[in-house]
Design goal:
By secondary structure, this protein is of the alpha+beta class. It has 4 helices and 4 strands. Strand 2 and strand 3 form a beta hairpin.
Amino acid sequence: MTSTRAEAGVDDTVGVSPTAFAANDATQDASKAAESRSEPTPLAPGARTALVVLSAVGVVLIIASIVLAFVVKQHSDARRNLDIARSDAVAAARQAIINLDSISAATIDADLKRVLAGTTGSFKDQFSKSQTDLKQVVVQAKRSSTGTIRSAGVVRADTDSATVLVAVDRIVKDSTNQNGVVINDRWKLDLEKHGGRWLVAALLPVG
């Protein structure tokens, strides 16, 4: 009689050891843990609010620093421009008085032209009209004069106008006094800036 494995009581089921099952469970647990770690943890509502506030504060601080830097630069530029204007106005006032006090019968035409070139407005008109009489006085007396600036300072100034005080020692010689006479003068000059040049708009003696 032919016999089968079943009849002989032989079990065909492949055997799996408990150790294999345990290893498989551990692998699945590790995979789940890795997946859990790879997913970002959502922020709590309070944390999200704090993050938004901090970002906004950072933006505000950046804008404030830019605005502050701009304001500081503007102020620095304005101050530098005013300092330059004051310096240029004083230099122009000193030169104007030197020109006015350096008039000689021998060079009268060039001297008067030099003075007139440094004037503007009503003072220019007044000086232009008085040139003929002034020339006559200087030539007849054979007069010559030179000036030495003793001091000069700004009373007020902006970038387009200024008032300057100038003190000068003027030595005047003529046909009656060849040794010369020293005259101490003080002048108040109002200057205006035109075409990049500081010009005398008014000239008054100061007692």
